[in-house]
């Protein structure tokens, strides 16, 4: 995938990096990027929220990191957590090829360890937008952890990938029934396939 980016994408052009990855995943080898269809929904949410602070849980190869960072205002900050060093190494190069390293802080480590340190380590008060795309059984515990650490404010947006496939049943049940969130489901398809999947957008009500 990285070779395809370096071969087919233009340095400093995030859209060409996204296109190169999508082409590679359609033509050569499927990979678990959010993909072009759900990616358009992600883009519209990022544009609507226009966040100053973003947390991404699960960098993988940096595809969604590039999509989000390319839409951020100049002073905005995106922190993305990746616990797998091999994925982190690839993502770092993909983000650099897109020319977005100044907007992105790629942190190697597990969400459960780093969420409690966000304020002290990165001077973050609260996140305007959180994109959840890591282990599906971590969505719920990490959301509760972000609440406990005071990282969400009235109006913070959570956007969760894969709420249908592979699925995040405990997270969906919690977020859709909690009086502290207003949720909306965006029906789509699993990246590069015709299988149903979707994104759940939730507003924290405080
Ligand atoms: C704790 N912590 N903190 C940071 C952090 C970062 C990671 C890694 O980035 C990582 C590694 C492996 C798996 C994931 C989750 N993603 C998925 O499992 C997924 C699956 C599919 C799918 C769907 C259908 C299939 F048939 C097969 C795979 C489609 C998708 O879009 C996915 O996101 C994330 C992990 C834990 C982490
Ligand atoms: Mg995903």
From TrEMBL:
One Pfam family recorded for the sequence: Methyltransf_3
Listed CDD domains: AdoMet_MTases
Coiled-coil regions listed in the entry: none
Keywords annotated in UniProt: Catecholamine metabolism, Methyltransferase, Neurotransmitter degradation, S-adenosyl-L-methionine, Transferase
EC number(s) per entry: 2.1.1.6
Broad EC category: transferase
Family per similarity comment: Belongs to the class I-like SAM-binding methyltransferase superfamily. Cation-dependent O-methyltransferase family.
PANTHER family per record: CATECHOL O-METHYLTRANSFERASE 1-RELATED, CATECHOL O-METHYLTRANSFERASE B
Protein name: catechol O-methyltransferase
Organism: Xenotaenia resolanae
């Amino acid at each position: 995938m990285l070779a395809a980016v370096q071969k087919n994408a233009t340095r400093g052009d995030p859209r060409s990096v996204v296109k190169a990855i999508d082409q590679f995943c359609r033509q050569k080898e499927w990979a678990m990027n959010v993909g072009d269809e759900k990616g358009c929904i992600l883009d519209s949410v990022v544009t609507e929220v226009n966040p100053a602070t973003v947390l991404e849980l699960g960098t993988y190869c940096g595809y969604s990191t590039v999509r989000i960072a390319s839409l951020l205002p100049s002073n905005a900050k995106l922190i993305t957590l990746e616990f797998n060093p091999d994925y982190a190494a690839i993502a770092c190069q993909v983000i650099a090829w897109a020319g977005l390293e100044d907007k992105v802080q790629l942190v190697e480590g597990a969400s459960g360890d780093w969420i409690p340190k966000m304020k002290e380590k990165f001077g973050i008060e609260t996140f305007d937008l959180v994109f959840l795309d890591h282990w599906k059984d971590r969505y719920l515990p990490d959301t509760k952890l972000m609440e406990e650490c005071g990282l969400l404010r009235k109006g913070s947006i959570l956007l969760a990938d894969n709420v249908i496939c592979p699925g995040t049943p405990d997270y969906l049940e919690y977020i859709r029934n909690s009086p502290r969130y207003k949720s909306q489901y965006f029906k789509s398809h699993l990246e590069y396939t015709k299988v149903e999947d979707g994104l759940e957008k939730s507003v924290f009500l405080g």
